[in-house]
Amino acid sequence: MARIAGVNIPTNKRVLISLRYIYGIGPSNAKDICEQLGIPEDRRVNQLTDEEVLKIRELIDREYRVEGDLRRENAMNIKRLMDMACYRGLRHRKGLPVRGQRTHTNARTRKGKAVAIAGKKKVTK
């Protein structure tokens, strides 16, 4: 099992797909890494030599911000917005959608499970 940037990447998948298991590396970055190192896209991780795994590890450490560093940077950016008390920071603090989505209906992912309002009864006629 190859370990890159502190993540065990799956061995039976293609290199292009398994690199995406690293936080901060998506489809385009994975493709760029394979092209820079000359690794064919259909090659599987278990077919890589130790030298190729080492080259991938060094390239990612040198040129990409991944895993802990990237998570820390994102958290610091959100914390900075919250400390400034700007609109986006207040939305983060309240746990509401930040980018202008409606909240009258939907927004359940950000707001959490719906809570029933006590004392409100249906009127039947």
From TrEMBL:
<keyword id="KW-0689">Ribosomal protein</keyword>
<dbReference type="InterPro" id="IPR019980">
    <property type="entry name" value="Ribosomal_uS13_bac-type"/>
</dbReference>
<keyword id="KW-0687">Ribonucleoprotein</keyword>
<dbReference type="GO" id="GO:0005829">
    <property type="term" value="C:cytosol"/>
</dbReference>
<dbReference type="InterPro" id="IPR018269">
    <property type="entry name" value="Ribosomal_uS13_CS"/>
</dbReference>
<dbReference type="GO" id="GO:0015935">
    <property type="term" value="C:small ribosomal subunit"/>
</dbReference>
<dbReference type="GO" id="GO:0019843">
    <property type="term" value="F:rRNA binding"/>
</dbReference>
<dbReference type="GO" id="GO:0006412">
    <property type="term" value="P:translation"/>
</dbReference>
<keyword id="KW-0694">RNA-binding</keyword>
<dbReference type="InterPro" id="IPR010979">
    <property type="entry name" value="Ribosomal_uS13-like_H2TH"/>
</dbReference>
<comment type="similarity">
    <text>Belongs to the universal ribosomal protein uS13 family.</text>
</comment>
<protein>
    <recommendedName>
        <fullName>Small ribosomal subunit protein uS13</fullName>
    </recommendedName>
</protein>
<dbReference type="GO" id="GO:0000049">
    <property type="term" value="F:tRNA binding"/>
</dbReference>
<comment type="subunit">
    <text>Part of the 30S ribosomal subunit. Forms a loose heterodimer with protein S19. Forms two bridges to the 50S subunit in the 70S ribosome.</text>
</comment>
<keyword id="KW-0699">rRNA-binding</keyword>
<dbReference type="Pfam" id="PF00416">
    <property type="entry name" value="Ribosomal_S13"/>
</dbReference>
<dbReference type="GO" id="GO:0003735">
    <property type="term" value="F:structural constituent of ribosome"/>
</dbReference>
<keyword id="KW-0820">tRNA-binding</keyword>
<comment type="function">
    <text>Located at the top of the head of the 30S subunit, it contacts several helices of the 16S rRNA. In the 70S ribosome it contacts the 23S rRNA (bridge B1a) and protein L5 of the 50S subunit (bridge B1b), connecting the 2 subunits; these bridges are implicated in subunit movement. Contacts the tRNAs in the A and P-sites.</text>
</comment>
<dbReference type="InterPro" id="IPR001892">
    <property type="entry name" value="Ribosomal_uS13"/>
</dbReference>
<dbReference type="InterPro" id="IPR027437">
    <property type="entry name" value="Rbsml_uS13_C"/>
</dbReference>
